[in-house]
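Hello, quick one for you while I still have it in my head. No rush at all, and the record is pasted right below.
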Amino acid sequence: MEKHNIFNQIPADLTHEVFEPLVDQDGVLVERIISKKHVTPEGQWYDQDRSEWVMVLQGEAKLLFEDSEVVHLNPGDHINIPAHCKHRVIWTSDTTETLWLAVHY
């Protein structure tokens, strides 16, 4: 078995948001997402077939839901997003990387 640390090996080039699968089996995907100044493109919404539980481990982010609710996530904050609940990322920190831990199930 090989040990890993979720806070290590953060890419220097974050021109694009990084999605790294950590576990993908039996219908469950666990991934590390790394954002810095990234947002969902204007007019686009996540409308996922599976539910997603997501936690911010470092940095900050704001999610906008289709009903206009804005949720500000700080380190340690987590939220469960049901399947087909339309949402988008409207802000991530521009001063530090935002590390997310996401579980799609």
The chain has a mean pLDDT of 97. The CA atoms of residues 37 and 94 lie 5 Å apart. DSSP finds no helices and eight strands in the chain.
